[in-house]
UniProtKB/TrEMBL annotation:
<dbReference type="Pfam" id="PF14087">
    <property type="entry name" value="DUF4267"/>
</dbReference>
<dbReference type="InterPro" id="IPR025363">
    <property type="entry name" value="DUF4267"/>
</dbReference>
<protein>
    <recommendedName>
        <fullName>DUF4267 domain-containing protein</fullName>
    </recommendedName>
</protein>
Amino acid sequence: MSIDGAAVAVGGLRMASGISFLVDPLRANRLWGSPDRPDATAQLLLRSMGYRDALIGGLLLAAGVRGRNTRGWFLASGGADAADLLGGAGVHHQMPQSQRIIGLGGAVVGIGVGLWGATRRRVVQSGPTASVPRDQMS
């Protein structure tokens, strides 16, 4: 079994971000660039985003620790960020500059990381000189 360090790191960060939105959504929202107190509907959506990110991050982390195929979880992670970017694009003109940079910029970075994680080739050493691409192993 080979631990996928990138999946563990990315999954851990996403899970921690999600948990922060569950534990203290107002503080987490400020960290992501919003200085205002969100209304009840926005707080519901912040918590929903927290559940989503904690779930995707936790499952990506678990797959990475177990040495399992992580492509699907990287795609799910990037897809979640793509949904955030698409949703934010419609209201970007109403967002403060800090929220556009941190929130939407973070989504762009997350999409890139998700695509990178899903398309990279992992090589696992199975002997002193032999290597097998991870995506060709059962």
